[in-house]
Amino acid sequence: MRNRSLNAIPTSAPGRRGTAPPRRVAPGPPGPPAARRPRRTPQPYILLAPALVLLAVVVGYPLVRLGVISTQGFGLRTLITGRTSSVGAANYTAILHDAQLAPILLRTVVFAATLVAGTVAVGLGAALMMVAVGRRLRSAMMLALLGAWAMPTVASTLVWQWLFQPTYGVVNWLLTQLRVFGDYRQHDFLAHPVSGFVVVWLLVVWISVPFVALTLYAGLTQIPGEYHEAAAIDGAGYWRRVRTVTLPFLRPVLMLVTVMSVIWDFNVFNQIWILTKGGPDGGTTTIAIWSFTKAFASQSYGQGAAIAVFSVVLLAVLAGWWVRRLVVAGEEA
Amino acid sequence: MRIRIPAGLAAGIVLALGATACSSSTSSGPTGTSTPASGGNAGKTLTVWYMDGDLSDAAVKAINDKFTALTGAQVKVQIQQWDGINTKVATALAQDNPPDVLEIGNTDVPLFAASGGLSDITSALPDLQAGGQHWLPGLEGPATVGGKSFGAPLFAGNRAVIYNKKIWAAAGITAPPTTFAQLTADLDAVKAKNTAPDFSAFYFPGKYWHGALQFVWDAGGQLAAQSGGKWTGTLESAEAQKGLTAWKDFVGKYSSAASRDVETTAPDFNTLFAQGKAGAILNSSINSILKVGPSLKDQIGTFPFPSATDGRTQPVFLGGSDLAIAAKSKNQSLALAYLKAATDPAVQASAIVGIDHWIPASTEVIDQTIGSLPATSQAFFTAAKTSVPTPAVAGWATVESDKSIDDFFADIATGRKSPAEAAKSLDAHLDQALNAPVS
User: Fold this and answer.
1) pTM of the model
2) Signal peptide position in this chain (chain B) (predicted)?
3) In this predicted model, what pLDDT tens digit does every residue of B335-371 receive, in sequence order?
4) Residue B432's closest chain A neighbor by CA?
5) Residue B372 — pLDDT band, cuts 50, 70, 90?
6) In angstroms, what separates the C-alpha of A167 from chain B's closest C-alpha?
7) Is A186–B197 a contact, with Cβ atoms under 8 angstroms apart?
């Protein structure tokens, strides 16, 4: 059922307006094949098979393996000797009784929420700006966004580390040059959990904005100009038009990028690990960092896998609930 | 997981000390000799894993030649990169046809020994240590788990004070200090002379446990103690607390405020030193400094960090590597012969010290070779004679990899926690991690 709901997303927004504009909004799959469903033909399945096989091998198998390992006492000895032993739900009980669980979950949710909000807000702003500016500036913006997007996260994280480091940090120097905050050249941003989080937040938003901005821009270009014209003739100002014309049309795309941002930001790892290692005093340890240190620092692959499964389930439930809610809201309107 | 001296640094030491060979190339082709000699081993080939940047090709060849002379078998050398090495070694040890001999970082040895991947070489020790060789405790200790030995030392590197003679001379100091009181008096003079906010008389990053532990050991403290097969964190002991407080006072006084919560790499302390922003640092070689500032060559002095007890030097953390035999290797006796060739005092003196200027496997070889070294290397050799191992237990790798030991010292240096509070929480973590069963 969920698949069908997802298919319905791209087409739901125009329907919501009750106007049925030309079907240019999204190049989604053909409409709900309700009428054709009884006729079961094998062709679609044959065409789907290669993708399904690939997904089963690349995504399915590791996921199943992860699930299996999470029920085993899997450590380094297991890896070397190949002898596994089932421990039932012990890995899960250990996690659920870990005093770290609640603060880490809370931290992860707050961190992901602020990241998603920041990414979508900045990305939407950039997309609106790209529509508004002239062609040259638009090309320049696209190039800049693609550049930021193309940079490997490890490389950009190392650049960030340099920008914000004491003594040689560029940001430290800039803040000092402003002559407002005093001498910041010896300041260590990563030494405090809050400012450390802010540095990581800036980096992740910077990396994530290009995808969001370009996708939203693509969505914006699909909105027929007549609607804006009609609204303008009726006397609607810019913000009014954004609210009543742009956003409703953009809704499915916005939803898509938000869901994807939630999934990505929930699992941010490189940026946090390289910049703060989850410190100071565990202040930036999110669920991804926790899973990594359990699995690869403590060599408890079983427990690390259990945390990973736990976060997959949590994400699936959260994302599923939210997608359903939005779809239902879309269909009712 | 990787506790040792960075590979690049190792390569650099070789260059800086003017050795002719450059660091190991990444080629993995067979470099073994092929002179079939006595014994029934001619035609057999032993596969050996070396780590990138540790021993030079020439030093490896010297060991291989000795091995071939002993056994008649050949050697196939494969150079491994450090990145993700523990996973790679674990996977290799799990195979039915693993490499026969592996170079393993000394603090990683317990992890693999406890997991059943390495061969027990205890019965061969009398032969390997023939001639009364005393292996360095910092290398032998971690390879000994539960009274059994799982590795033979290959080489070591350790830390000594590196200071800028020009900056010190400007403050009126001309001879290196030999006591802790002299050191602090000298640093006071350097500090008084240099008042810039980014200058450190002695730059000592907060996240630098290899260095900070020297203070704990010097005061008679230990990370953890074992009794009845159970490890207990002992940083709350009076001795360890004394050392931690001494360290906190030292860095608080002589190292810049910006150094409290950083690692040695960001900002890079070699660069800080090379640019004159630090009067002294504690590091394992002068070579990374020379890479940034080649003109400093004649301006660098070294001395072992003096102990709070006059006449001694601070015990050092010994980084380095052991050679171990894969338990699933089908050439156990040949592999043992390779260990014998690598720890041979003559090979150690000529290759490990003579070619690569590393610290050799035994105190006897140190004494024998120290006179022939450049002046800046001698301080490192002197300091190496008093070394302390990290707990020889698989769980130690956890403490290092999850960075709790880094946070521990940074918490103390920044004042986020008092030494007593910080020790309480790390002791609890040590109790849990060091006693965690290996599954």
Assistant:
1) 0.77
2) 1-21
3) 999 999 999 999 999 999 888 888 899 989 988 888 8
4) A298
5) confident
6) 7
7) yes
Contacts of A188 in chain B (CB under 8 A): 258, 260-262
Residues from chain B that touch A190, judged by Cβ atoms under 8 A, are 261-262
Run of H or E including A285: none
Q: How many CB pairs under 8 A join A and B?
A: 113
Mutation target for B interface from A69, A70, A78, A80: give the one with most B CBs within 10 A.
A80
**Cβ contact (<8 Å) for B94 and A75?**
no
In which residue ranges of chain A is pLDDT below 50? 1-28, 31
Beta bridge partners of B156: B320, B359
Chain A residues with CB under 8 Å of B397 CB are: 297, 299
Enter the ipTM: 0.71
Test A183 with B197 for CB contact under 8 angstroms. yes
Q: Do A280 and B111 touch (CB under 8 A)?
A: no
Alpha-carbon span B172 to B73, nearest angstrom: 60
Query: Nearest-CA residue of chain A relative to B415?
Result: A191
Determine the residue of chain A that is closest to B410 in CA distance.
A280
Among the residue ranges A4-13, A156-165, B47-56, B227-236, the one predicted with the least confidence is A4-13
* B57 Cβ neighbours under 8 A, 6+ residues apart: B21, B22, B24, B25, B31
- Closest Cα in chain A to B113: A77
Domains recognised in chain B with CATH numbers = 8-157+318-384 (3.40.190.10), 160-316+392-433 (3.40.190.10)
Of A108, A206, A107, give the one whose Cα is nearest residue A157: A206
pLDDT digits (tens, 9 = 90+) for A247-278: 888 888 898 899 889 888 888 898 898 888 88
pLDDT at B6: 42
Mean pLDDT of B50-61: 87
Q: Pick the residue from chain B with its C-alpha nearest to A83.
A: B439
- Residue B104: strand pairing partners: B322
Query: How many angstroms separate the CA of residue A173 from the nearest CA in chain B?
Result: 13
CA distance A116 to chain B (A): 28
Average pLDDT of every residue of chain B: 85
Region of poorest pLDDT, from A219-228, B83-92, B166-175: B83-92
A186, B258: Cβ pair inside 8 Å? yes
Candidates A80, A185, A187; nearest CB to B117? A80
Residue B224 has pLDDT above 50, yes or no: yes
Cβ contact A183–B406 (<8 Å) = no
Taking each helix axis from N to C end, the angle separating A193-221 and A135-150, rounded to the nearest 10 degrees, works out to: 130
Contact B90 A76 (CB under 8 A): yes
